[in-house]
Amino acid sequence: MSKIANRIIIMSCAFVLLITGLYIGFKIGDGATAEVINPNPEVVVYQPPTSTVTNNQEKNEEVDIEVIYEEYYTDCKETIINKNMEFGTTIEKLKEKVGDEYEVVDETENSITFRKEIATNCPNHFELKLVDGYVMIYQRIKADETVMYKNTEIPQAVIRDELVSELEKGIKVDTLDDLNSYMEDIES
Predict the structure, then answer these.
(1) pLDDT under 70 in the chain at which residues?
(2) Could you tell me where in the chain the CATH 3.10.20.420 domains are found?
(3) 62-76, pLDDT tens digit by residue?
(4) I need a labelling partner for 169 at 20 to 30 A (CA). Which of 22, 73, 114, 148 fits?
């Protein structure tokens, strides 16, 4: 075979492998997503779980089911929603698996939504402080309760004076984007 024919065969194989890899990646990637929403509690209206019994549920067939977990944080009034797919299962098996930890708020043939309330802030609330001459990041669990999130190892000596006074008081941020923005400001 000529060099050109060999190159065409190799390029064709590489192309087929690339397309196959992308297809598999998209199929796997559809399995788990997460999103954060900030509901207005005065507007949110819950409806009782729907009890739509379908042919698959009557037959107890195993199907692919989208599972949605809603975690409502009472202190910050935010809801974090995690979605994923459970393959080859039933709604009843999922209810048994989750147990009493969550309540069922919606159910269809191919999806189920579980919800629970948590009496803290969600994991997106932070406070930056100067401790022993270094910037520390704390996660704000409650208004008066924090836990160490990360030691940045950024010394006070490299921080602008106006930021030093703010850090000594504590800088509170309510999103990861705000945290990253402050960290960029501190490091510049």
Answers:
(1) 1, 22, 26-60
(2) 31-118
(3) 899 999 999 999 998
(4) 73
